[in-house]
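User: Show me a protein chain along with its predicted structure.
Assistant: Here is one chain, sequence first, then structure tokens.
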Amino acid sequence: MGERGRPVAGLRAYRLVAGMWVRSTMTYRASFVMTTFGNFAATFFDFVAIMLMFSRVDALGGWSLPEVAFLYGLSGTAFGLADLVMGSAERLGRRVRDGTLDTMLVRPAPVLALVAADQFALRRLGRVTQGALVLGWAVSRLDVAWTPAKVLLMPVMVVSGCGIFCAVFVAGAAFQFLVQDAAEVQNAFTYGGTTLLQYPPSVFGKELVRGVTFVLPLAFVNWVPATYVLGRPYPLGLPGWAAFAPPLVAVGCCALAGLAWRAGLRSYRSTGS
């Protein structure tokens, strides 16, 4: 298969495998509705905790409740989409340990597509829905002078943030080729990363903000572009054009994650069983 045909083959394989799991899920519709609602409720309680904070204070790090909700909604929606599309990659370590990854290596499809689509969980739409609802509520409460640039930046932030989180999922999966029991380490950067981004950068130390801006650029999911929309000072004194850099950051992260994945896959030597 040529290099140009691999992305097309990967998308087709992903669609077929994910579709199989969706059809299996829809066989038990009541169970699907309950698990999706449970996913929605579990993530909603995170925002309830933020609302409880604001019942005692007027601002958090100088940010109002609608502004924090704006960060929360952007982070939750972007991560929810990435978790829906690529979240199954976190199970790679288990497949490496028990040798079931070998069955994917002999199939005529890109391994990453098969790993990502494996046990596709449509119930994760609950997280996406919850994040989108909070984002919609925040937008309705914000005192922002909306310009065409700010309006266009909204979907760009969500799509770019999804791409950045997908890259983190893939890079974490590649790391599990080396350290087979590293799912919790990966979760620290995926689930932990989205929790971090739900709060304004002003409540964290400068070293941490630098780390998630220049080392693992999660700040471009919402912190940096959101400051432009809200008219706030940029974190670390970044230039104004940084608000429009998330697509470039997402492409760069995905390219580096792809290289890490290929290196990890080439180093795989099976379990020997």
